[in-house]
Amino acid sequence: MEIEHTRPSNALAMPSLSISKPQDSPAQSLSDVVEHRQRRERELASLYATARALTALGEVDTVLTSIVRHAHELIGTDVTYLSVFDDPYSELTLRAVEGSLSPEFRTAHVPGNTGVGGRVVETQSAFWVSNYLTDRSLTHDPGFDAVLQAEGIVALLGVPLRDGTRVFGILYAADRVERPFDIDEVALLSAFADHAAVALQNARLYEESTRALADLRDAYATIERSAAVHEALTRVVLTGGGAREVAQLLVTSLGGRVAIYDRDDHLLVTTDNVRGKADAPSDGLSGAQSDSRRTGRCVTVHDVDADPEPQFHSLVAILAGDTYLGAVVLTHLHSPSAVEQRTLERASQILGLMTLKQNAVVEAEERVRGELLTEVITSPRPIPAELATRAASRHVQVENFTALVVAEGFSRRSVDLTRRLHTFSAEWSGLAGEYFGTSTMLIVADDLDGAAVAIQRRLRATLHEPILVCATPVTGANDALTRPFTIASRCLKILRATGIDDRGTTSAHLGLYATLFDPDRAEDLAILLADNLGALLDYDTRRGTDLVGTLAVYFDNSANLTRTAKALHVHMNTLIKRLDRVGAVIGERWQQPDSALSLQVAVKLHTLTGVLGPSPVR
């Protein structure tokens, strides 16, 4: 009689076991038949028990331990154990064992290409040796041989755990005496190995599905959190919030410390004391700033020198097209995740929108005040009532102005200076704007010198470059303000022409040049130049020479002939001939102290006249 177990669709593999009725013989007793049947029944019961354990989806190590225990009991070997590969065919790691005596055996690792395991992997079928340590046909690992010798293992059988055609583990049965393994033992151990393979595959699939579900949950939670942050950022914009509210929201959502900078990399908002490389994007984080400006994405820098422990600075440039509006920097003890970086990028976009909105409001106000300033400067006195009323609506009392101030930077556009003047014009009850391309402000000040110096220092501190400021008083209730503007703007040109590019002063300190910058003294200037330089200017015009220019260089070099010749790139004899010609034109006494002083002043004023150009006021 033969009983065959077949494999149903998607069911666990069951071995084909047969129970054959033994032939009657005088040597075989009934007790042998009963014992044979009982052993087969135990085998089937154990296989079904392991199959039921697989369907429970319990801990994989628990299932494997159960499989090894049943195999150990039924086969009856001294030691039964199961090992799996950590990586494909690299090293076998023990996962379950029964019958072991030494702790070293329970933690043993063996290379996958050695011993019985290597032969099983190579042939993808069962393999056994009656005496492992003396078998020279196998590749031995000295470390594992020592472990087997300490355990006393001699005979060893291994059967593969397969996933299709891939062997990913081996189930072993071992005895401490030399002996062969019969076909029934190999078949039974193979059946248990198939169950172990299913258990490991189920566990892998279960772990993958659990991990995927956890990833989905995390992703959903991240999306929800990200959406909540985005809604909160949008709410900040709609409720009229500013950079401080955005910074606080980022800290609440991401932790760490947030600093927000403007287009000039000046700190606008910080949620804590900013230290290390985050002091200014253009300084310690210049590389990250450049990369973020180019890509528009978050760039992270690891600051290993930060005190008291290394930090990560994540910077995102605030952009509007190609225009740089500032930067937001998140400082944290860990590197931000991809979602945190996207959150920071979204915050920079919100800050960009807020900056554009604020700029539009500021520019509109600046435009109105600039137009108002132009009207105040050009309007005849007394100021028309309608203009005074419009000025008063912006808290400006035009009748109270006592001085006019102009400012000029080394490389800054006048619009940048004008914007800064707007920010603190209220401190001087002033009105700022741009007039004929020049940053101009009307102020109320008792101490004009002090006001000029204070305004210059404020501008220099915020713009971080040399700044020229000149103030001139507004005198006479019936005088238009075009004349003070001309005086102040010409003073700036005189200062720069004389090598001064970083000072706050008043026109009173440039009295020597009053005939130059005061349009009311243009006739005095013309008389001075005609009296002292008229003959030389006429000679240069008729002869195509430049005797006046030669005198300018001569006086600039303190009447030193050697330095003058070098500056003019001419021979000494040529210079002497030119100076003799000057004496022939205006008289030999021109080098006498009295004559030389007036001539030198006239030459200097004539040179500066070319620098000043015509009056900008029409």
Protein architecture, described:
By secondary structure, the protein is α+β, with helices and mostly antiparallel strands. It contains 19 helices and 16 strands. It has a six-stranded antiparallel beta sheet, with helices on both faces. Strands 8-7-11-10-9 form a five-stranded antiparallel beta sheet. A five-stranded mixed beta sheet has the order 13-14-12-15-16, sandwiched between helices. Helix 6 (183-238) packs antiparallel against helix 7 (243-254), helix 16 (547-556) packs across helix 19 and helix 17 (561-568) packs across helix 18 (572-586). The longest helix is centred in the middle third of the chain and has 56 residues, at 183-238. The relative contact order is 0.05. Residues 1-24 have low confidence and may be disordered.
List the helices and strands and how they pair.
Blueprint: H1 30-55, H2 60-75, E1 79-85, E2 91-98, H3 103-106, E3 109-111, H4 115-123, E4 127-129, H5 142-151, E5 155-163, E6 166-175, H6 183-238, H7 243-254, E7 257-261, E8 267-270, H8 286-295, E9 299-303, E10 311-320, E11 323-332, H9 338-378, H10 385-392, E12 403-409, H11 414-424, E13 431-435, E14 438-443, H12 448-463, E15 467-473, H13 482-497, E16 503-506, H14 514-517, H15 522-543, H16 547-556, H17 561-568, H18 572-586, H19 593-612
Parallel strand pairs: 15-16
Antiparallel strand pairs: 1-2, 1-6, 2-3, 4-5, 5-6, 7-8, 7-11, 9-10, 10-11, 12-14, 12-15, 13-14
